[in-house]
Design goal:
The protein is of the alpha/beta class. It has 2 domains: 152 residues, Aspartate Aminotransferase, domain 1; 236 residues, 3-Layer(aba) Sandwich (Aspartate Aminotransferase, domain 2), CATH 3.40.640.10. It has 14 helices and 13 strands. Strands 2-8-7-6-5-3-4 form a 7-stranded mixed beta sheet, with helices on both faces. The protein has a 4-stranded antiparallel beta sheet with strand order 9-10-13-12. A two-stranded parallel sheet has the order 1-11. The protein is globular. The N and C termini lie far apart (57 Å).
Length: 401
């Protein structure tokens, strides 16, 4: 008996780049490269997860919550203490006043917040969602699941800043959502202030909602992070997403949140309650502790990752790879064309596997029609121990010999 596969499933698999021509579903490039690293003994700089634990105060708070018996369903919108901590955080760092009762919802990581927002905001198949390409791979899958059309604005080597004219051409009256990831995964770019202002202008001109993914907000190098919601005229049409995973090195806890105007947050929660309903009971009070850590923790976090990114970048350059210096996030992009490569997928599986360091080809983050534009770019994660990055740099040097 042959089963009919639902169209939404097909759209989502295709959007994620996983649907093969025969209709079967493949694994993500992250799973493939991690398996390659494990089987060869290579250093895995492909997936963006730290190899160090987070702050002791945060970990201990989770243990204490478990011991207190906070192991059952918390409120669907999140425990009050975490919602208050998120509100305090937004005021402390950005001057934003967030009502913890109506303007924040705790989610199962940032990805659920983004998915719930897109499902809540899309009204018809004619709606369009604008993203910046390359993009975090779940964006295309979530847009496909919502039934909307994905529109992309390319980011180009070496600084990966969007062209304002191209942006203005892509955003139109069918644009329902402009999805902004800043600091940006996978390029490591931080969008210039003028770019953010243009996004707000276009959102007003075309009555679009701005959905921002700011999970790397405390990993911006050289200049403080600027949330889109703080710009003039932005708050009333902006939903801001973040999480504790990257900031507190707790990516497995999947504790995120979304903030914004009450009516938009309520629409997101209407969808979210039918996804996970709630999650991470003992982790929520722990993330609240993290958000209240002293300023020195947050500045030290950015300084540490900048130092690690410098070590990684030096190793990549020593290997003969061209490097785009990151301005934020976990990631550094390199161009393997400088070593004669024509396809980053092959390069990652071959030469890098032989050198003992694994990265991820950027073609995993782009639409099929733009693969050629990014064919030789590779993403590396700097969120590893200094000694691991030093060993990776030494191994990479063998590529130049």
């Amino acid at each position: 008996m042959q089963h009919q596969i639902p169209g939404a499933w097909r759209r989502t698999a295709a959007g994620a780049g996983l649907l093969r021509p025969d209709g079967s579903v493949g694994s993500t490039i992250f799973a493939e490269m991690s398996a390659l690293a494990a089987s060869t003994g290579a250093i895995n700089l492909g997936q963006g997860f730290p190899d160090e634990d987070g702050p002791a105060e945060v970990l201990e708070a989770a243990r204490e919550a478990i011991a207190r018996g906070e192991n059952q369903y918390p409120p669907g919108i999140g425990i009050l203490d975490l919602r208050e901590a998120i509100s305090e955080h937004q005021r402390r760092f950005y001057g934003l006043e967030i009502d913890p009762a109506t303007q924040v919802v705790v989610t199962a990581g940032a990805t659920e917040a983004l998915a719930a927002a897109l499902l809540a905001l899309i009204d018809s198949p004619d709606d369009e969602v604008v993203v910046f390409e390359p993009y975090y791979d779940s964006y295309a899958a979530c847009v496909a699941l919502s039934g909307a059309r994905l529109r992309t604005v390319p980011l180009r080597w070496p600084d990966f800043q969007p062209d304002p004219d191209e942006l203005a051409t892509v955003v139109n009256d069918r644009t329902r959502v402009i999805l902004v990831n800043n600091p940006h995964n996978p390029t490591g770019a931080v969008f210039d202030h003028a770019v953010l202002e243009e996004i707000v202008r276009l959102a007003h001109a075309h009555d679009a909602v701005i959905l921002t993914d700011e999970v790397y907000e405390h990993l911006s190098f050289g200049a403080p992070h600027t949330p889109v919601a703080t710009l003039p005229g932005a708050w009333e049409r902006t939903l801001t997403v973040s999480s504790g995973g990257k900031t507190f090195r707790t990516t497995g806890w999947k504790t995120g949140w979304i903030t914004g105007p009450a009516e938009l947050v309520a629409a997101v929660n209407t969808v979210k309650q039918y996804l996970t309903f709630t999650s991470g009971s003992p982790f929520q009070p722990a993330i609240a502790v993290g958000l209240r850590l002293p300023d020195a923790f947050f500045t030290g976090l950015a300084d540490e990752l900048r130092r690690k990114s410098d070590i990684l970048g030096d190793g990549l350059r020593a290997a003969g790879l061209a490097v785009s210096p990151p301005r934020g996030s976990y990631f550094t992009l390199a161009d393997a064309a400088s070593l004669g490569a024509t396809d980053a997928d092959d390069f990652c599986r071959g030469a890098l596997a032989e050198a003992g360091v694994v990265g991820v080809p950027i073609t995993a983050f782009v639409t099929p029609e733009r693969r050629a534009d990014y064919a030789t770019f590779i993403r590396f994660a700097a969120c590893k121990r200094v000694e691991v990055l030093g060993e990776a740099a030494a191994r990479l040097a063998s590529l130049a010999r």
